[in-house]
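To the wet lab folks,

You asked to see what we're planning to order before we commit. Fair enough. Below is the target structure as tokens, and below that is the sequence we designed to fit it. If anything looks off to you, flag it before the synthesis order goes out.
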């Protein structure tokens, strides 16, 4: 079945990441392609993190009374960071749901 090979590759990557995260890396994890799904996921997480850091930095600057930092700018950046975080959580939930569905498929 050639249509399952990309799915099997993704499952292998997820298993490798899970083993690495838990410290049970008895097998060497397969290197993740920079242009693949895992690479795009990593870049998305980096963008979410940068958005949150920017919002919290702006919030801190406002609290310290630095000139040129308006409350409306702080609130907008905090809302942008919140929306991007919530989007990331929803993507994660969908990935977990898809993984669980694949694992429950009959062989």
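Sequence we intend to order:
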């Amino acid at each position: 079945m050639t249509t399952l090979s990309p799915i099997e590759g993704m499952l292998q990557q997820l298993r490798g990441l899970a083993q690495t995260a838990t410290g049970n890396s008895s097998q060497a994890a397969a290197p993740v392609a920079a242009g693949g799904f895992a690479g795009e996921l990593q870049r998305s997480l980096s963008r979410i993190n940068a958005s949150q850091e920017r919002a919290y930095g702006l919030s801190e600057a406002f609290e310290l009374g630095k000139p040129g930092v308006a409350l409306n700018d702080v609130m907008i950046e905090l809302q942008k960071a919140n929306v991007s975080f919530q989007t990331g959580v929803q993507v994660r939930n969908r990935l977990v749901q898809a993984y669980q569905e694949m694992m429950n498929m009959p062989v």
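Structural context that might help your review: The radius of gyration is 19 Å. Confidence is low (pLDDT under 50) at residues 24-30.

Thanks,
Computational group
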